[in-house]
């Protein structure tokens, strides 16, 4: 059993069956086909209903893991010189509801994301139902040549998120789905609403953190130079220098594995070139 499966835990079959039955009832179906999928995910148990609905089941254990990860992320933000900007939610249902709302906001900004359809609670489990993207591949499964071709589009979409005053908060290769060379963002996390006095600083910090995560996700696929060049299509070097300060924080997360010194070196090289 992998570390993520151990931490995520398992939900008893009778509880999952109750969730599947609720999904069928809420979509006006008497019977349906349920297919469980193995996802690189710490925070839910996913399955697909009738090849049409993607269902995330969030347990109390998932909520506890989310609290631990949130605390670590906020400590990292403080270490990078800003206040923590991640918000923990108190219940599995609230986790599901916040993701639904974050995804709706991204879609309203013109960012491709699976359509969120429903959120509800069954036996203490939070349940999020979204559109299922048939034939998707996570970004880290497409191969290096295709990943290099798609890399500039990743930052174009991320810039669209940021230009709308939003942030993703948990950008990893597993959270970017590829369908016919279109990129879809999933698993947007919940960020604290900044106060009036910290609004600009908070938006800048979340933007830089997202950039650091995107660079960390791409570097193992395409190399540091290609990743930085792709980011510079949509972001100035000053933004990448800000993101550089978060790379050490991202590097200690268990769900990122990248060459931090190579990325820092490439960012410094491009910044020096612009300054020259």
List the main descriptive attributes of the protein structure presented here.
single chain; 276 residues; alpha+beta; Phosphorylase Kinase, domain 1; Transferase(Phosphotransferase), domain 1; 5-stranded antiparallel beta sheet; 3-stranded antiparallel beta sheet; 8 strands; elongated; disordered N terminus
Please tell me about this protein's structure.
It is a single chain. The chain has 276 residues and is of the alpha+beta class. It folds into two domains: 3-131, Phosphorylase Kinase, domain 1 (2-Layer Sandwich), CATH 3.30.200; 137-275, Transferase(Phosphotransferase), domain 1 (Orthogonal Bundle). It is 50% helix and 14% strand. It contains ten helices and eight strands. It has helices spanning 3-8, 13-26, 60-79, 92-108, 144-163, 199-222, 224-232, 237-244, 247-251, 260-275; strands spanning 34-36, 45-49, 53-58, 116-122, 125-131, 137-138, 176-179, 182-185. It has a five-stranded antiparallel beta sheet, with helices on both faces. Strands 6-7-8 form a three-stranded antiparallel beta sheet, covered by helices on one side. Helix 5 runs antiparallel to helix 6 (199-222). The longest helix has 24 residues, at 199-222. It is elongated and about 65 Å long.
Summarize the topology.
Elements: H1 3-8, H2 13-26, E1 34-36, E2 45-49, E3 53-58, H3 60-79, H4 92-108, E4 116-122, E5 125-131, E6 137-138, H5 144-163, E7 176-179, E8 182-185, H6 199-222, H7 224-232, H8 237-244, H9 247-251, H10 260-275
Antiparallel strand pairs: 1-2, 2-3, 3-5, 4-5, 6-7, 7-8
